[in-house]
């Protein structure tokens, strides 16, 4: 009996510490810990980015207010959910997979992504990939190019998640240069 009470008390203390840790991380501006997915970031009121959600999270995506999900990962990416499109459609949201090659993102990928977002109206959109690397970079570029958000401000959502690798910096810089945006990606 006494061991059971100690175990219960220990579990409550552990749960409380986990809650405090999560609150501390969110307050300090680190990519948010969320029931939605790893590296979840609210880039703007309408555009949210994240790593790969699991099946349960995908099944409730519309309940969270998302009308569209854009997946930038390839079907062979880490933790890919083969039935993702079906789960999201069954939840009542729209789904599109734009499989961006991790090693070779292209301007054509960005054009397609931009075209879809430009036609999405005012729907809340979740853009994701395996770890929110592709998603955060594409969303940064979209916000700067199409929504005229100040690049320094928009890049904060990328910096919360990762320091882009050289080929991603080159890709992002190429897109910004095409639109004559005066910003150097760190």
List the helices and strands and how they pair.
Blueprint lengths: L1 H26 L13 E2 L4 E4 L4 H5 L6 E6 L12 H8 L2 E4 L9 H12 L5 E5 L4 H15 L3 H9 L6 H13 L8
Parallel strand pairs: 2-5, 3-4, 3-5
Antiparallel strand pairs: 1-2
Helix pairs in contact: 4-5, 5-6, 5-7
What this model shows, in words?
The chain is α/β, with parallel strands linked by helices and 186 residues long. Helices cover 47% and strands 11% of the residues. Helix 4 packs across helix 5 (133-147), helix 5 (133-147) packs antiparallel against helix 6 and helix 5 (133-147) packs parallel to helix 7 (166-178). The protein folds into 2 domains: 1-30; 35-178, Protein tyrosine phosphatase superfamily (Protein-Tyrosine Phosphatase, Chain A, Alpha-Beta Complex). The longest helix has 26 residues, at 2-27. Strand 3 (66-71), helix 3 and strand 4 (94-97) form a beta-alpha-beta unit. The chain contains 7 helices and 5 strands. The chain has a 5-stranded mixed β-sheet, sandwiched between helices. The chain has helices at 2-27, 55-59, 84-91, 107-118, 133-147, 151-159, 166-178, and strands at 41-42, 47-50, 66-71, 94-97, 124-128.
Helix amount, in percent? 40-55%
CATH class of the largest domain: Alpha Beta
Strand-and-helix sequence, N→C? HEEHEHEHEHHH
Number of strands: 5
Spans of at least 5 consecutive residues whose pLDDT stays below 50 are 3-33
Cα end-to-end separation: 59 Å
What portion of the residues fall into strands of 2 or more residues? 5-15%
Question: How many discrete structural domains?
Answer: 2
CATH topology of the largest domain: the name is Protein-Tyrosine Phosphatase, Chain A
- Rg from alpha-carbon coordinates: 19 Å
**Spatial strand sequence of the major β-sheet:** 1-2-5-3-4
